[in-house]
Write a structure and sequence with these properties.
Radius of gyration: 19 Å
Distance between the termini: 19 Å
Shape: flat
Largest sheet: none
Number of strands: 0
Order of helices and strands: HHHHH
Mean pLDDT: 87
Structural class: mainly alpha
């Protein structure tokens, strides 16, 4: 990893926490546009979309499996860095 442990800790301290919020379409559209513009991202998902794609699209299944495995590895790396940072404090 480029950078030192101290640099990593500084970055973590400088950044504010981010929240992932899941809400129904009716609630989202009822928010004032000023509030919605403050969101860093917004993703739309449809009921049963994942299930439908898993059953009917082999490309989706393969990409999803690869994404899931990569996400697990990334989470392990993040955990290791947090633990190293916590232990050195």
């Amino acid at each position: 990893m480029k950078g030192s442990k101290e640099q990593y800790q500084e970055i973590q301290e400088e950044r504010a926490k981010e929240w992932l919020v899941i809400m129904d379409d009716q609630i989202y559209t009822s928010l004032p546009s000023e509030v919605r513009q403050g969101f860093k991202s917004a993703t739309v998902s449809y009921p049963d979309e994942h299930k439908f794609l898993m059953e009917n699209d082999p490309n989706y299944r393969n990409y999803y499996k690869t994404k899931r495995e990569a996400t697990q590895e990334i989470d392990k790396i993040k955990f290791m860095h947090r633990e190293k940072s916590r232990r050195s404090s």
